[in-house]
Amino acid sequence: MPPYTHILTSHNSPNLSGVAKFNFILGQKLNAPTIPIANVLELEGARCLASVKMKDCSEGDKSLFHSAIKEFKVKKISYDVFFHTFDGLDVELVLIQNAANVYCGNDEICSQVAELGFVGIPLWCPALIEGNSTLHSESLNLFSFGMAHKINLWNYRRLLKRLEDMGVTFNLRVSTAFHEHANFGDFDSVSSEMQAVFGDRLSFLGFLSDASVNFFLETSDLFVAFFEKGVRANNTSVYGAMAKKCPVLTNLDNWSPKWMKHNFNILDINSLCQGDLAKDNLRTIGQNGFETVREFSTWDMLVAVLGT
Prior knowledge:
Layout: E1 6-9, H1 18-30, E2 34-36, E3 47-52, H2 59-75, E4 78-83, H3 90-98, E5 102-104, H4 107-115, E6 121-122, E7 140-147, H5 153-166, E8 170-177, H6 184-198, E9 202-206, H7 210-219, E10 222-224, H8 236-243, E11 248-250, E12 267-268, H9 279-296, H10 299-306
Helix pairs in contact: 2-3, 5-6
């Protein structure tokens, strides 16, 4: 049989779904583009692998799979199916009945398929974690966390250019959180754009707990946080890093706290120079930041004002 021309996916966001990430990696290794089921009717002369977890799909997507199978019959398009789960859904039965081969992600799925009178081929899903560690003593290890919908891409692009112009090797690790009125689409959109900017120098750490954030603040050379206009007195992520003695790179403006001083207790992207990023200098900035944030912005000070 010829190689697959396309991987059909029921999940479209590799940063949010293990099935989507599996499909994306498999598509790269097979040199076959991964396409959502919504685009399947455009195919001509294809041989596809439908890699699916149907129980997570919307009714609309299930309907699209039914339509696609009918279209495949008309166009004589051959396809195999790879089940990540099997739940006896009508659409799963239709997929099996018309597939050239039925691949099963584990032995239990094979058993479920066999109970319906079909032969499944047992396979597996390899590890989805690839690549090397992003902690390197010879590189500048950057860390960033904050709300997904507030990530300021323009300043991250400025940072990339500055670092490349300085010849600085670096790695950037990012954790994101969600505002209660935001959604996962914010993260997926921003993560894709960030990956396009930084390539393999960027690692997404997911949605870390406070304990995990503290660990990375304590083990990183520099914390990076950019804001639409400039850091403000109520931007808590910056204070959190300073309280851990992690030096901070941000963007200052006239409304930033007056006690924040470039290359003393913080770094300003607008004034960044190569010498600022020497690790000894960063350690000094981290220590100064720790001391000044305790002098100007603590819970005890706030409670003293509000409690009187």
